[in-house]
Amino acid sequence: MQEGGVRETERWEGYVDWRNRPATKGRHGGMVAASFVLVAEVLENLAFLANASNLVTYLMNSMHYSPSQSATTVTNFMGTAFLLALLGGFLSDAVCTTYVVYLTSASVEFMGLVILMIQARSPSLMPPGCAKVAGAAPCEPVSGSKKAILFVGLYATALGIGGIKGSLPSHGAEQFDERTPQGRKGRSTFFNYFVFCLSCGALVAVTFAVWVEDNKGWQWGFGISTIAILLSIPVFAAGSRFYRSKVPTGSPLVTIAKVLLAAALAPCRGGAPSASNGAVIDRAPSPMGNTELKEYCKTGEACAAADEATEPSQELSVLNRAVQCQPRHRALACTVQEVEDVKIVLMVLPIFLATIMLNCCLAQLTTFSVEQATTMDTRLGGLKVPAASLPVFPVTFVILLAPIYDHLIIPFARRATGTEMGITHLQRIGTGLVLSIVAMAVAAVVEVKRKNVATNAGMIDSRAPLPITFFWIAFQYLFLGSADLFTLAGLLEFFFSEAPPRMRSLATSLSWASLALGHYLSSVLVTIVNSATGRGGHRPWLEGASLNHYHLERFYWLMCALSAINYLFFLVLAIRYKYRNAGVIKG
Question: What is the pLDDT of residues 374-396, one digit of tens each?
Answer without folding.
Answer: 888 888 877 787 766 777 877 88
